[in-house]
């Protein structure tokens, strides 16, 4: 884990401290970490949404048997059989 120092206004510090006092977070560090993790998840979701939209806008065509076989082969390597 790495440490960074962040300067915040007095108003933001009071807000962070209030969240900790209310019991929503164990520490200011946890508060900041959770905010950053939430933002990271939102950005990942935005990327997935953009890729899905791109797929929806692409031309529609039937997949060949070879394409389906290739997908199945890739999945067999990723998913344990059992």
Could you tell me the radius of gyration in angstroms?
A: 22 Å
Output the helix-strand order: HHH
Number of helices: 3
Fraction of residues in helix = 55-70%
Secondary structural class = mainly alpha
Overall outline = elongated
Description:
By secondary structure, this protein is mostly helical. The chain has one domain (10-78). 68% of the residues lie in helices and 0% in strands. It has helices at residues 10-21, 28-57, 65-78. The protein is elongated, with a radius of gyration of 22 Å.
Summarize the structure.
With 82 residues, the chain is an all-alpha fold. Helix content is 68%, strand content 0%.
Keywords:
82 residues; mainly alpha; 0% strand
Topology:
Layout: H1 10-21, H2 28-57, H3 65-78
């Amino acid at each position: 884990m790495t440490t960074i120092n962040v300067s915040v206004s007095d108003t933001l510090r009071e807000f962070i401290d209030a969240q900790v006092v209310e019991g929503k977070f164990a520490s200011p560090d946890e508060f900041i970490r959770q905010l950053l993790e939430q933002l990271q998840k939102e950005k990942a979701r935005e990327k997935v949404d953009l890729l899905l939209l791109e797929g929806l806008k692409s031309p529609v065509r039937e997949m060949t048997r070879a394409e389906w076989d290739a997908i199945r082969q890739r999945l067999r390597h990723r998913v344990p059989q059992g």
